[in-house]
Structure to design on (218 residues):
């Protein structure tokens, strides 16, 4: 059945799942994690999710989740961004940027995050905004969808990573990650720096870990 993108009523995560992220809500940044990577298995079963029905994190630290549904036509428009096949990994990273931005457009209009602003400050209770944890987890979801539909020819999808631990003088921040299959170079796919629907930045993990941010970021 060809359905339109929609969502369930915004609701807090169940207690058992929310507990996984409880420590996050105690930190001022709203963008910290206990280890060097966010554990995707701690909040959702990605293997059960498809573009036809998936969950979206929002409200800072994945405090809210909403069910989202892409129509066949919407998913086909995402797939079309990868055609013809990328000639190399660099070209494919350009496809990924456009596809993530389109996913954000579709999802934002449905779940109420279309006005999500660039970056995030202190923890808030605003279901329409996303911090870097929300962004990293959602972008990772989208990347897994691309990969499972065989749209990625030159990259694999890795676990999200983070930088900054306060004690090292750096502000905590998280991002989705892909790996170039030919060179094994890992890249962040970071959609936090810009408002909803803008193309994410894709830069080498090492550069990002050094504290890099785009020159035109707000």
């Amino acid at each position: 059945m060809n359905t339109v993108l929609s969502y369930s009523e915004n609701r807090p995560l169940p207690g058992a799942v929310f507990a996984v992220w409880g420590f996050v809500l105690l930190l001022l940044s709203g963008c910290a994690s206990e280890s060097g990577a966010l554990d995707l298995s701690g909040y959702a079963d990605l293997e059960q999710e498809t573009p036809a029905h998936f969950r979206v994190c929002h409200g800072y630290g994945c405090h809210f989740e909403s069910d989202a549904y892409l129509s066949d036509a919407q998913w086909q428009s995402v797939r079309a961004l990868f055609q013809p096949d990328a000639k190399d990994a660099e070209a494919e990273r350009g496809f990924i940027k456009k596809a993530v931005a389109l996913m954000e457009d579709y999802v934002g209009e449905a779940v109420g995050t279309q006005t999500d602003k660039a970056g995030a400050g202190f923890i808030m209770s605003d279901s329409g905004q996303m911090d870097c944890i929300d962004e990293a987890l959602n972008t990772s979801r989208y990347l897994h969808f691309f990969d499972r539909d065989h749209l990625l020819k030159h990259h694999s999808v890795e676990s999200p990573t983070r930088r900054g631990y306060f004690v090292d003088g750096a502000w905590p921040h998280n991002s989705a990650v892909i790996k170039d299959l030919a060179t094994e170079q890992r890249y962040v796919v970071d959609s936090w720096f810009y408002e909803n629907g803008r193309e994410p930045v894709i830069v080498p993990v090492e550069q990002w870990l050094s504290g890099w941010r785009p020159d035109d970021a707000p």
Notes: The longest helix spans residues 89-111. The chain is about 30% helix and 15% strand. Helices lie at 15-20, 72-80, 89-111, 132-148, 205-209. The chain has one domain: 11-209.
